[in-house]
């Protein structure tokens, strides 16, 4: 069984949601793990982690890099 792996730390929940939807258009299931417990600001608590299954890491990383390069 595959484990979830963090592939990007996002500054905001909105950024993570956008990237999650981008990955899902390519058929990659993504998860968001927001480490915002105890009212700490996201950047001091670890931020918002975008995660995919281990077998999707390479493909997802390439998709995100390609999207970054076109900005």
Task: Give structural attributes.
alpha+beta, Alpha-Beta Plaits, globular, 3-stranded antiparallel beta sheet, 71 residues
Task: Walk me through what this model shows.
The protein has 71 residues and is of the alpha+beta class. Helices cover 42% and strands 25% of the residues. It is built from 3 helices and 3 strands, in the order βαβαβα. It has helices spanning 13-25, 42-45, 57-69, and strands at 4-10, 30-34, 48-53. The longest helix is centred in the first third of the chain and has 13 residues, at 13-25. The relative contact order is 0.28. InterPro entries: DUF2007, N-reg_PII-like_a/b. It comes from Bythopirellula polymerisocia.
The major pleated sheet works out as:
3 strands, antiparallel
- State the fourth-level CATH superfamily: Hypothetical protein rpa1041
First-residue to last-residue Cα separation: 35 Å
Estimated structural class: alpha+beta
Taken in chain order, the helices and strands follow as EHEHEH
Report low-confidence residues grouped into runs of 5 or more: none
Mean pLDDT: 86
Strand content: 25-35%
What proportion of the residues is helical, as a percent range?
40-55%
Give me the number of helical elements. 3
CATH secondary-structure class: Alpha Beta
Shape estimate: globular
- The name of the CATH topology is Alpha-Beta Plaits
Number of domains: 1
Adjacency order of strands in the biggest sheet: 1-3-2
Q: How big is the Rg?
A: 12 Å
Total strands: 3
CATH architectural designation:
2-Layer Sandwich
InterPro entries: DUF2007 (IPR018551), N-reg_PII-like_a/b (IPR011322)
Domain DUF2007: 15-68
Protein name: DUF2007 domain-containing protein
Pfam families: DUF2007
